[in-house]
Amino acid sequence: MHAAAFAWAGLRGEYRAQRVEPAALPAQIAALRRPGVLGANLSLPHKEAALPLLDALSDAARRIGAVNTVIHRGGQLSGDNTDAPGLLRALEDAGVGAQEGAVVVLGAGGAARAAVYAALTGLGREVYVVNRTPQRAQALAAAWVRPQGAALVRAVDVEGVPWEQVGLVINASSAGLGAPEESPLPDFDFGRLPAGAGVYDMVYQPHETRLLRDVRSAGRRGENGLGMLAHQARLAFAAWTGLEVPPQVFLGALHEKLD
Ligand code: ATR
């Protein structure tokens, strides 16, 4: 995607994949301060481990507790999280979740924290978190208690969700990732959702998971994670270069590689 964006912008930039062992992370982060380096993307487990190694953090990175984008300027490194705004843009593009109503987040890892942050700050909706291991959902929800003690995010089991009041379900679990028949909600009747409700599955490989198939066969809207992947990259590229490259450039590169 970034190679396509550099080409579109007529820049001689290079985006390289690099394997970094956890012990080497501080040295690799320090190396980003070299002149000519625009920044980096981080994947697990570095997304979380990099936080104390950076000079500044965006609100999103701090609240989510994960950095997917490091931006270098004049020797200073700042950490951002473009997953949350990328998700919001992808939802808007797909017209999924435009319906009023609560948001259900499936999963309780870093991806789920980004989804909760997006739902609260971008959509301003009530959030229910459902996770295979309930204790992790409870820990996630506890981080969002207002000083006055009001819960913004509730950890519940599947039957604790008021499904008839839900506008959007986000799969932020890794169920279905590389395993098309695995679903975070196996045997769930998505007909319990209001007719206009939608489901966003962050999984993009395979393009159609069992979750999305179940959603669509119940007549509800479902969208895979390709849009979020493209938008988080587009936003990172904009932070590094100051250039707004059209989303189609990133999506086109993804389809070329993954279809
Ligand atoms: P990330 O930070 O990328 O979100 P993670 O911390 O490994 O990654 O989280 C993966 C999430 O997917 C977890 O919520 C996990 O549930 P557990 O907390 O019970 O481990 C969830 N998950 C993974 N496989 C799943 C499956 N087959 N069914 C339901 N949830 C699953």
From TrEMBL:
<dbReference type="InterPro" id="IPR036291">
    <property type="entry name" value="NAD(P)-bd_dom_sf"/>
</dbReference>
<dbReference type="Pfam" id="PF18317">
    <property type="entry name" value="SDH_C"/>
</dbReference>
<comment type="pathway">
    <text>Metabolic intermediate biosynthesis; chorismate biosynthesis; chorismate from D-erythrose 4-phosphate and phosphoenolpyruvate: step 4/7.</text>
</comment>
<keyword id="KW-0028">Amino-acid biosynthesis</keyword>
<dbReference type="InterPro" id="IPR041121">
    <property type="entry name" value="SDH_C"/>
</dbReference>
<keyword id="KW-0057">Aromatic amino acid biosynthesis</keyword>
<dbReference type="GO" id="GO:0009423">
    <property type="term" value="P:chorismate biosynthetic process"/>
</dbReference>
<dbReference type="Pfam" id="PF08501">
    <property type="entry name" value="Shikimate_dh_N"/>
</dbReference>
<dbReference type="GO" id="GO:0009073">
    <property type="term" value="P:aromatic amino acid family biosynthetic process"/>
</dbReference>
<dbReference type="InterPro" id="IPR022893">
    <property type="entry name" value="Shikimate_DH_fam"/>
</dbReference>
<dbReference type="GO" id="GO:0019632">
    <property type="term" value="P:shikimate metabolic process"/>
</dbReference>
<feature type="domain" description="SDH C-terminal">
    <location>
        <begin position="225"/>
        <end position="254"/>
    </location>
</feature>
<protein>
    <submittedName>
        <fullName>Shikimate dehydrogenase</fullName>
    </submittedName>
</protein>
<dbReference type="GO" id="GO:0050661">
    <property type="term" value="F:NADP binding"/>
</dbReference>
<feature type="domain" description="Shikimate dehydrogenase substrate binding N-terminal">
    <location>
        <begin position="1"/>
        <end position="70"/>
    </location>
</feature>
<dbReference type="InterPro" id="IPR046346">
    <property type="entry name" value="Aminoacid_DH-like_N_sf"/>
</dbReference>
<dbReference type="InterPro" id="IPR013708">
    <property type="entry name" value="Shikimate_DH-bd_N"/>
</dbReference>
<dbReference type="GO" id="GO:0004764">
    <property type="term" value="F:shikimate 3-dehydrogenase (NADP+) activity"/>
</dbReference>
<dbReference type="GO" id="GO:0005829">
    <property type="term" value="C:cytosol"/>
</dbReference>
